[in-house]
Design brief:
mainly beta; Thrombin, subunit H; 2 domains; six-stranded antiparallel barrel; four-stranded antiparallel β-sheet; 3 helices
């Protein structure tokens, strides 16, 4: 009996002291779900602790709390009724979007690339300002786009040194609040100080590339 109790999974606590929000007694899976609902620009306000630790830690410093729980599932499209009209929200695995029915899928990304972008630029580059969130090594960085295209993104700020390899990237349209999740990689420039260009992983199909182009242009 005592051996079983000693081997139980440590429970977690999550707290935002400025907002006086507390979630205590969470399993490892439950805290990941809670963290996934916290906006990236608010996560610095949160702290975590689990049984066995002597002190609380900043949420941003605890990578395992940010890891997503991913299992292979194939749900149907979500149909939402708004003001008497129905719209379809894509729930496909892979790239996700709050844009109705966009349903993009990123192609396989294998190994590193020495090219300036994943793909040859075939689509127009748009001078648009969108909010960008980049996730790398369990940390998040935010900036705004200077221009965007199907092949890549140029942002206003230089990304920190901890951003490398393949990363998740979210584009937020400021006017409509639409969000699109993509995969990106830092473009290697001749000037190592220039760290503000990101190549986007190619879509699985040409049709998806055209869908992405239309979304960016709209």
């Amino acid at each position: 009996m005592s051996g079983s109790a000693n081997n139980k999974e440590p429970l977690w606590c999550l707290m935002n002291p400025s907002e006086q929000i507390k979630h205590f007694g969470l399993t490892a899976g439950e805290i990941k779900v809670y963290v996934s609902t916290i906006p990236f620009n608010k996560r610095h306000e949160w702290y975590v602790w689990h049984e066995g630790w002597s002190d609380w830690k900043a949420l941003a410093d605890v990578q395992e709390a940010h890891e997503m729980i991913e299992r292979e599932v194939h749900p149907p499209e979500l149909i939402v009724e708004e003001g008497g009209r129905k719209r379809v929200v894509s729930v496909h695995t892979g790239t996700h979007s709050t844009s109705p029915g966009l349903g993009l899928s990123v192609g396989p990304v294998e190994g590193q690339t020495d090219s300036k972008e994943f793909v040859v630029r075939e689509f127009e580059r748009y001078q648009k300002r969108m909010r960008v969130v980049i996730e790398s090594q369990g940390q998040h960085f935010e900036s705004f786009t200077k221009d965007v295209s199907v092949g890549g993104v140029q942002i206003e700020d230089h990304v920190p040194e901890w951003v490398f390899g393949y990363c998740k990237l979210w584009l937020h349209k400021l006017e409509t609040n639409e969000v699109l999740e993509l995969t990106c990689s830092l473009v290697e420039e001749d000037d190592s100080k220039k760290r503000n260009r990101l190549a986007l992983a190619p879509m699985k199909t040409t049709e998806d590339s055209h869908k992405l182009d239309s979304w960016l242009a709209a």
